[in-house]
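Justification of computing resources. Each target in the renewal requires a structure prediction run like the one illustrated here; the chain below, 147 residues long, is used simply to show the kind of job we budget for.
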Amino acid sequence: MEQFHLFAAIACAASGMALACGSVCLVLALRARRASGNLLALAVEMEGQLGAFKQELETLAQRGAEQRQRLALLESWSRVRRPESEPAASLPVFEGSAKPTVTEKRYRVLTLARRGLDVSTICETLSLPHGEVALIIGLSRTQEEVV
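Resulting structure tokens:
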């Protein structure tokens, strides 16, 4: 009978161990499920950010291409020497939706001024205000006097 009690005690201990192991497995499975849910949410968020980065990269690539075209045009102008008698209408015009930069405006105004055009004609040709054209020409003359 004593052996029976020993086997019963061993059976109870084994069933207790099995129950404990099952509980531990259940807890681990729940943690794994929660972690996978968190990882899924993180993956979705990262995918959204990646899409935004791709769009920004495309925009920057397009702006870079426009800047390369503008730079190539400016470089070609610096290599080509135009005669003084060339009409103002032949002055290169920048295309695109972007407004010309201050440097581009200055280049255009001073090119026409060196060709002998007066301020009013330059204003009409480039569609710039009279005061802006006069200021650019005046500053250029001041710089030439200083140098």
